[in-house]
Amino acid sequence: MCLRITTAIGVSRGKCGTVASATEQAPTGEHGDPGRPSGAGETALELLVHGVGGTTPEEMLDDPRTVRITGDKTAAVFRRIDDADAEDRPEDHRGKPVPEAYVWCNLTSGNGSRALWLLLLPFMVVNLAHWMRPTTRDRQRTVRLYGLLVRLAGLTLTVLLVAAACEVALDLTAWQCAGTPVCARDHTWLGFLSPEVSGDGWWSGPGRRLALASLVPAALTGLLWYLSHRTWSAYESQKPLTRRAEEDADTADTVETALGRPGFWYGRRLVARLRAAHTAAGFLTVAAAAGTSAARYDRGPGGPALLESLGWLLNALLVLGAVVVVWVVCRRGRSENRLDRELDRTLVRWLPVGSIVLLVLALLYAGWSRPGWRSQGRLPGDLMFGGIAYVQGLLVILLAVVAHAMYRSHPDPRTAMHGLAGPAVAMLACALGGVMSGGVAQRVADWLNGTDDSFLGPPVLLTWQASVIPPLLVVVLLLVGWLGRRTWVLRRGELGAVEHEYGVRERETETGEAPEQRPGQTDDEPEHRDTTRTRRIARTRAMAALTDRAPRVIGVISAVTLLLGIGALVGATVTEKVPGDAARGTHAFVQGAADTAQALGSWLIGFGFILIVTSGRRAYKDASTRRTIGILWDVGTFWPRAAHPFAPPCYAERAVPDLTWRMATWTRTTGGRLVISGHSQGSVLAAAAAWQLTPSVRKRVALLTYGSPLERLYGRWFPAHFGPHALSSLHREVDCWRNLYRLTDPIGGPVRLPGDRGSQVDAAPFRDPLAYGRTRLHPLPAPILGHSDYQADPAFAKERKRLLDRIGPEVPGPRGGD
To answer: Could you tell me if 703 and 568 lie in one domain?
Structure first.
């Protein structure tokens, strides 16, 4: 994926390169350097910006000699050494743009340890739901309610993750295994915690075991806080281009999308508030897991009156802390209309500190000596996990109601799932959180259990949730079959279209070999039919069209997941038994199905967690795996952290300001001209950077996009920010825009602007492959390029030249049609 400003130089994908030179140019001022080189206004800039896949400046500039103009090791702008002073020599670049390369692969690439970010996948997915709200007008309260519900759903995911860590460390390990003689003897490293093995040692008391084990989920919470703070400092602390007040007002009046607002790419205040609240929620969850278990024992018969009173006081403080956390999450959303430089320092600093104090008090209370206390059964994990599941289901349903109301106020048939994409994705985030938490608990329980029947294992609800995975997989397999059938139908429909497009005719020979090119034969003459070739092209087109079926697939999976989750919650609450035991005494088929679902689900939920981890690590080592899951990861980490502070960092909060600063300062300094050209995800960065420019600068910009998901993915799934009105406004505000795509491209597609504007932006689909058979220009079989190598098509150079011809050296060209 590649973003370029003005050019047709071929960009090849590769690994992240190193900086070629440390030579830097003095930065320009905030509003440009008043000194302008003589003749610089006749210069055009060509800024190449690679996509998330990464490449080197040498490959981007097609020159082994490059020099760093500005930037650091994380992201920098490069030029060829010969072009370093191009503004001082405009006569050498008359009629051709000056190429630059913006290299930012270190924002998203790195060593294999970054695969651990995939463990934050549920947080990233729920953050996506925040940006998927439908387009609405004059319903600001509804928009705020939508954001509030998503933030609350994100908070439940943090509590769920920490609760899963508590389940593993406190319940399964410290309470059940250490309290069971057989399990403690099988795992000798737990011997000092077992009263039978250690002989009633100091750590063998249940409360002290729980206090010691609480350090594990507490450390996990601290790690999440540290990673969120560190990634924000490294990625998202860069301030956008500072604009004057009149420029901000002008931008607010002309831009019809939030991406053009001054504070959109600087969510420092909200992220800091949410980070404090989620960190406090994690510590309070650990305190509740340890302290409430001791308080429940103290409330029993024979419990000390003083400890019972302390238990009630501790529970009251925990409830108060939870109320404060929820209030902080609900109190404030994103502020985008201005660049918010303030921080709620008192809240950000003291809310986590207060939760840590409560955690220490809870551990001291739980560790108090209670000679008669023995660990039996399970800790009350069903109550916690059941409450989380109930709240998540309720939030998803309310979110669907709000989203439907927003969609009805301004319906758009191209919007994914009729506006319900956000609730569906939020449901998937909750399901992913359940799979990861349940998978860890199941695998640890199987490892600790061995052959001891007295080991009860994880809570009943987690077993029920695992048991519904097999029927969910049956639904997924049915959807795969439907997609396969749909692909076959589309392929048959494309066979005739392919032969008509290439002018295929019956083969003149009967030898089964392609005839040789006749002397004087032109490349435009009809090709001879090759059944295999025709089917391959048709199949590629049909598979590329499956992207448009994604909303239906996601919608069905989300709906089935919600229904099965409700069934699991009801089953665990009513029976208080695992599915296999609950089915005892029923029909043999029902009992067999319940036992099979329980056993298979337990294995699948653990396997799913391991698969997520291994897939993430392989994605950073294997290029093909990276391309397979890359598009979803690119979309997820493009958006700022608005709903969950522990989500993976947003690379666009560094990349978009970098691009905006470079374009604005260069234009103000030189008065030169710009053509922004973006491939795939780069076209999204191009649009975001163009929206951040002031109207006066944006009018000097021409836009060329190819393989672009602007409408096909972003316009349908994020209509409030990339919908028809936003893309139409972008077309009006830039000098001109041309979009190129192929029918074999599974990601890129037409922009589909309404009316005549659509024909002005979207070119006719590029032919892919370039030739059906062997020709003079293509003596070897031409490959099917799909999403890559748009520059290899001669039509790309023609479209680029037409775009360059429309902008003059000093002022934008006429806005006439083609």
So the answer is: no
Contact assessment for residue 795 and residue 766, using Cβ atoms and an 8 Å cutoff = yes
* 337 and 480 assigned to the same domain: no
**Domain check: are 15 and 77 in the same one?**
yes
159 neighbors 281 (Cβ within 8 angstroms): yes
> In this model, does residue 2 exceed pLDDT 80?
no
Task: Give dist(CA 204, CA 194) in Å, integer.
Answer: 5
pLDDT at 614: 72
Residue 678: which residues within 8 A CB-CB, separation 6 or more?
2, 3, 4, 49, 684, 685, 686, 687, 703, 704, 705, 706, 708
Decide: 165 and 217 in contact? Cβ < 8 Å: yes
CA distance 101 to 79: 6
Round the CA-based radius of gyration of the chain to a whole number and report it.
Answer: 30
417 neighbors 554 (Cβ within 8 angstroms): yes
345 has pLDDT over 80: no
- 255 and 310, same domain (yes or no): yes
Per-residue pLDDT, averaged over 240-263, amounts to 66
**Domains held by the chain: number:** 3
Query: What range does the domain containing 617 cover?
Result: 472-504+527-638
Query: What does pLDDT average to over the chain?
Result: 81
- In terms of average pLDDT, the best of 20-29, 163-172, 295-304 is 163-172
Q: Peptide bond before 709: cis, by omega within 30 degrees of 0?
A: no
Q: Is residue 400 in some structural domain?
A: no
The model's pTM: 0.87
Please write the tens of the pLDDT for every residue from 214-224: 999 999 999 99
Is 579 found in the same domain as 687?
A: no
| pLDDT range class, residue 627, cuts 50, 70, 90 | low
Same domain for 698 and 607, yes or no, is: no
180 DSSP 8-state letter: S
Q: Is residue 399 part of a domain?
A: no
CA distance 136 to 20: 48
Please report whether residue 720 resides in a domain: yes
- Dihedral sign for Cα atoms in the order 273, 277, 283, 284: positive
Alpha-carbon distance 459 to 452, whole Å? 17
Among 610, 638, 666, the domain boundary falls at 638
Q: What are phi and psi of 467, to 5 degrees?
A: -70, -20
67 and 100: one domain? yes
Question: What residue has token string 């672009």?
Answer: 708
